[in-house]
Design goal:
The chain is about 40% helix and about 15% strand. It catalyses: UDP-alpha-D-glucose + 2 NAD(+) + H2O = UDP-alpha-D-glucuronate + 2 NADH + 3 H(+).
Length: about 425
């Protein structure tokens, strides 16, 4: 029979909420704690402050085993496991800021039945050892420590949690490893146990390799443009090699989000701090930084060498479809660059949260793609929202001042767009 645990999850962001809701679904008693009053109040009143497919339903279905609080002491008091899902943002040096993790550790003294502390937040290798030392100093030698990195992708996080490719557990001792494995009973995926530093590294290495695959594909796309090959045909055939696989080889304006940019910088900083220059990762980051800039340059060339007083519509703001998240999205670099070149920027996105900060404070947002495109000199597809396939592109060509498109996600068919009268550019494809 499944053993029920009392879990305190720290952090009600994408990771913490999904973790808490999924553990409640698996039958555990969960309390999720966050420092943001507004966020906790929304959750206490039955709302969900972020969009994640299936999350609102999961929270509602398991409401009797899931509660939310601002009070850290109250959260840890009767819990036997503390899950740390707080954010670890980049500092100026590219290192991860661990201050929120330390704040959690500071509250552990209140716990009466604590058996284990598990860190899910992405952290530099060696963090576990530091947390362990801090716990020992606080008289918590009897409490186990584990690293349990997450591999869920936004937009499909609930599915990824419940049906993962693997559950990685790094623990100092077999009792703690067994406890964390037990929490995952009912999850459909193999459990891989290892030591704490290796578990911490798995997470960074996996994200860096995924980012590398995309940047590599974007480099191939650039060479395709210069030589007359077509990146989609190339990647399709390359990906059929089972040693390489077809995933994360879609060319475009680059990767963004809360993970790849931050984690690749953190891994590079971690290497640099020990005197090693991770040159390949630096190139991966640089290629990604170039992608939106190249898009702006190609638009500029097409618009007779100037973007001044041109109006450009950006379709899609979020870093990928299926999420409301705009963190480190390529759209932000695109909009900033266009504004810097003197263009006026309009935008459309079905889910992005309203943004009051630069560059979006200078961009007008429209309710439909067609409204955003009316009268503009060019349109850029930035996020591959599926609804963009169904836009009436014939009508779009008619309402634009000039039917010029940069398809930054290779979403549409070059021939078709050409036949509708568009001057159509995309990433690494033959037109
Ligand atoms: C990523 C990883 O995929 C997860 O495994 C990991 O757990 C998560 O980071 C994390 O560290 O928390 P996520 O940031 O949600 O998940 O986003 P992805 O779906 O991986 O996409 C990242 C970016 O790469 C997006 O901007 C997307 O448009 C871009 N991308 C993806 C491409 O440009 N080409 C591709 O072929 C695939």
């Amino acid at each position: 029979m499944m053993e029920k645990h009392r879990i305190a999850v720290f952090g009600a962001g994408y990771i913490g909420l999904v973790t808490g809701a999924c553990f409640a679904k698996l039958g555990h008693d969960v309390v999720v704690r966050d420092i943001q009053k507004e966020r906790v109040e929304i959750l206490q009143n039955g709302g969900v402050p972020i969009y994640e497919a299936g999350l609102a339903e999961l929270i509602a279905e398991n409401a009797d085993r899931l509660r939310f609080t601002l009070d850290a002491e109250e959260a840890v008091r009767d819990s036997d496991v503390v899950y740390v899902c707080v954010d670890t943002p980049s500092t100026l040096s590219g290192d991860a800021d661990l201050s929120r993790i330390w704040q959690v550790i500071d509250t552990l003294g209140e716990a009466r039945h604590l058996a284990a502390v598990v860190v899910k937040s992405t952290v530099p290798v060696g963090t576990g050892a530091r947390v362990r030392a801090a716990m020992d100093q606080a008289g918590l030698q009897h409490v186990g420590y584990a690293s349990n990195p997450e591999f869920t992708a936004e937009g499909q996080a609930v599915r990824d949690f419940l049906q993962p490719d693997r559950v990685v557990i790094g623990a100092d001792d077999s009792r703690t490893a067994k406890l964390v494995a037990q929490l995952h009973e009912g999850v459909g995926g193999p459990v891989v146990e290892m030591d704490v530093p290796s578990a911490e590294m798995v997470k960074l290495a996996a994200n860096a390799l995924l980012a590398t695959k995309i940047s590599f594909t974007n480099e191939i796309a650039t060479v395709c443009e210069a030589t007359g090959a077509d990146v989609e045909q190339v990647v399709h055939a390359v990906g059929l090699d089972h040693r390489l696989g077809p995933h994360y080889m879609k060319a475009g304006v680059g990767w963004g989000g809360s993970c790849f940019p931050k984690d690749s910088r953190a891994l590079r900083a971690m290497a640099s701090n020990s005197g090693y220059s991770f040159q390949m990762l630096s190139s991966v980051i640089e290629v990604n930084d170039l992608q939106p800039r190249r898009a702006v340059q190609r638009l500029k060339d097409e618009l007779d060498g100037t973007l001044r007083d041109r109006t450009i519509a950006l379709l899609g703001i979020t870093f990928k479809p299926g999420t409301d998240d705009v963190r480190e999205a390529p759209s932000t670099i695109l909009a900033s660059r266009l504004l810097a070149e003197g263009a006026a920027v309009r935008c459309w996105d079905p889910l992005a949260r309203p943004l009051a900060t630069a560059p979006w404070s200078s961009a007008t947002r429209y309710a439909t793609p067609l409204e955003a495109m009316t009268g503009v000199d060019a349109v850029v597809i930035v996020t591959d929202w599926p609804e963009l396939r169904d836009v009436d592109w014939d009508q779009a060509a008619a309402v634009m001042a000039r039917p010029l498109m940069f398809d930054g996600r290779n979403l549409l068919e070059p021939q078709r767009m050409g036949s509708l009268g568009f001057t159509y550019m995309s990433v690494g494809r033959r037109t």
